[in-house]
Design a protein that fits this description.
Elements lengths: L1 H69 L6 H18 L2
Helix pairs in contact: 1-2
Length: 96
C-alpha cells in the first residue's frame, strides 16, 4: 500500500514538473517568435527610411545640378554622366 502511494506521488510530481517545463518552453518559443517578428518589422521600416533618404538626396542633387546649369555653370562630361546615373536611379526607385 505504501509503495502504491509513493508511486502515485512520484507520478504526480513528474506530471507537475513536465507541465511546468512545457509552459516555460512555450513561453520562450513565443518570446523568440515575437522578437523575430519585431526585428522583421524594424528591418522593413529601416529599408523604407533608407529608400526615402536616398530619394531625397538624389532629388536634391538633381535640383542643384539643374540650377547650376541654368545659372551658366558649365559641367564636365563626368558630372553630366553622373547626373544621368542619379536620375536613372531616382526614377527607378521612385516607383517601387
Amino acid at each position: 500500500m505504501e509503495s502504491t502511494i509513493i508511486v502515485a506521488i512520484i507520478t504526480v510530481a513528474g506530471t507537475i514538473t513536465n507541465t511546468v517545463i512545457s509552459k516555460k518552453t512555450n513561453k520562450k518559443v513565443n518570446i523568440i517568435s515575437d522578437l523575430k517578428k519585431e526585428i522583421a518589422k524594424m528591418k522593413e521600416e529601416s529599408k523604407k527610411d533608407m529608400k526615402e533618404h536616398l530619394l531625397d538626396s538624389d532629388k536634391t542633387y538633381l535640383i542643384n545640378f539643374l540650377s547650376e546649369l541654368e545659372n551658366g555653370i558649365t559641367k564636365t562630361d563626368i558630372q553630366i554622366k553622373r547626373a544621368y546615373e542619379i536620375y536613372e536611379r531616382y526614377c527607378k526607385n521612385r516607383w517601387k
